[in-house]
């Protein structure tokens, strides 16, 4: 009985807050649509009328919740208020049949992978080691691309869990309920295909051709997952993903909501995996997968053009989105943001010119100079605008900001590590390896892609947290964001009695 009453009261509190913020949005859009002046009497009168409504009063319900927890603590937890709150807040959900099936499936997959790994160790490889390595290498770009996709999905899950624990309402900010539990399924699937492909290569003396069958299975399975039109595997979330991608491709014509610009920013960190995707497509379209013949960038003119274009296109999308944001808001900060991406585009073009003539010291110097300037400008923008830092000079929050949702050490760690990860590209400044970075230095490319996506995940956490605290770029009509859950005063989350 206590749990039911407690749950219903929390729902009532949450519904009141949702209605209050929804009404605020309606008033804001009404004033923006029908009045030229941002500050008008009618707007203020409507807000006063809204604030006088009884459903906007959170304190009364919170007081009732506090009294309920207090009574529960006296009767069942010997006066321990925090323990009583935790017991009432616990959501006990019985394990469902689909959960049993999921657990059984993963147990079986892991067992098969373990058995396959033992077989790979015990089965002798072909004596033609160079042929075996060439055959394995032909499948690497496909698996590198898929591994980075899985890694990014896993990081999304980690970021969401971290934001939920910190009470950052990411669902409200994105206007989307992202699904991330399929990462384990996709990861097991790709790993199984990769191990199967290696195992088949080790049995090359039993085969007349080096079929990359399992590589093809992996890429086909992932494509089916993302583009299938049926009502399963979260079609709504996949639809929103493709809509946001399309809105970016048609920039500056397309809309620019928070999730649209956020996804486009993420794509600027996926240049390495996107190049691997180009190698994979060439590998299958050209028919080389039948004989497991590796594909290099210089093998096809179209592939060369794709390599250079994909290094610029994500930055161009963000460049155009900034102009659309300026058109919508008339905020000069969007033009400054556009200049930041313009510098990155110029640095990317300098990198392309150096790739075409890697013996030129002047082109190398130009690339290093422009890339350094672009990275420093982007780093400064990350700190000041995207993360809202460098706004306080007080000792307790030096170089941070007044309102924070994470401990201070987390921000200082991010400030330092973000700069280090931004300049990992200097490892490629080598006249022999840089031009063929994606085709000959595979492990180095994979490592740098991992680091860049880790940096982007770090950026995402603080960008969403800053959006929850502030509204610098006016992506929302109102500043207030509902809390993910309303805590009772008197707990660790809400204080003590």
Automatic annotation (TrEMBL):
<protein>
    <recommendedName>
        <fullName>EXS domain-containing protein</fullName>
    </recommendedName>
</protein>
<dbReference type="GO" id="GO:0006817">
    <property type="term" value="P:phosphate ion transport"/>
</dbReference>
<feature type="domain" description="EXS">
    <location>
        <begin position="298"/>
        <end position="495"/>
    </location>
</feature>
<feature type="transmembrane region" description="Helical">
    <location>
        <begin position="338"/>
        <end position="356"/>
    </location>
</feature>
<keyword id="KW-0472">Membrane</keyword>
<feature type="transmembrane region" description="Helical">
    <location>
        <begin position="405"/>
        <end position="425"/>
    </location>
</feature>
<keyword id="KW-0812">Transmembrane</keyword>
<dbReference type="InterPro" id="IPR004342">
    <property type="entry name" value="EXS_C"/>
</dbReference>
<dbReference type="GO" id="GO:0005794">
    <property type="term" value="C:Golgi apparatus"/>
</dbReference>
<dbReference type="GO" id="GO:0005886">
    <property type="term" value="C:plasma membrane"/>
</dbReference>
<dbReference type="GO" id="GO:0016036">
    <property type="term" value="P:cellular response to phosphate starvation"/>
</dbReference>
<feature type="transmembrane region" description="Helical">
    <location>
        <begin position="210"/>
        <end position="233"/>
    </location>
</feature>
<dbReference type="Pfam" id="PF03124">
    <property type="entry name" value="EXS"/>
</dbReference>
<feature type="transmembrane region" description="Helical">
    <location>
        <begin position="305"/>
        <end position="326"/>
    </location>
</feature>
<keyword id="KW-1133">Transmembrane helix</keyword>
<feature type="transmembrane region" description="Helical">
    <location>
        <begin position="101"/>
        <end position="123"/>
    </location>
</feature>
<feature type="transmembrane region" description="Helical">
    <location>
        <begin position="183"/>
        <end position="204"/>
    </location>
</feature>
<feature type="transmembrane region" description="Helical">
    <location>
        <begin position="143"/>
        <end position="163"/>
    </location>
</feature>
<feature type="transmembrane region" description="Helical">
    <location>
        <begin position="262"/>
        <end position="285"/>
    </location>
</feature>
<dbReference type="GO" id="GO:0000822">
    <property type="term" value="F:inositol hexakisphosphate binding"/>
</dbReference>
